Amino acid sequence: MYTEQELTAQGYKAASAEYFTGKAWLKPLVTPDNDTNCIISDVLFEPGTRNNWHTHGSNQILIIKTGTCYYQEEGQAVQKVEAGGVINVLPGVKHWHGASPDNIMIHTAIGINTEKGIVNWLEPVTDKQYLP
Length: 132
What we know:
Helix content is 8%, strand content 45%. The chain has helices at 4-9, 127-130; strands spanning 13-14, 20-21, 24-30, 38-45, 50-51, 54-55, 60-66, 68-73, 79-82, 86-89, 95-99, 105-112, 120-121.
């Protein structure tokens, strides 16, 4: 586990509690501008943390760097993707992702074609959805 000081020193900022159950940290790597239509961030999820259901206007690519990513698309079973795994979330697919209950999870999130929108936040993931 990292301390808040260590995370801040590495460039992480606390994620908005409005969109997460638990504590998450964001580290922006690339921000969209007039020349770059993608957004890339590292996201650290503390144990048991997950984001709300959401969709994207274009693909979101998740590269799992540390831990196990819990990932679910609406109507599907929760998937457990280990470090080194990659998830390609298609446009408009309602989904969520987060850490396992016992360990942190860090993924690099890549949002492409940001001119189509970055994220549409929806309702929180319930405990029953997280741990069926």
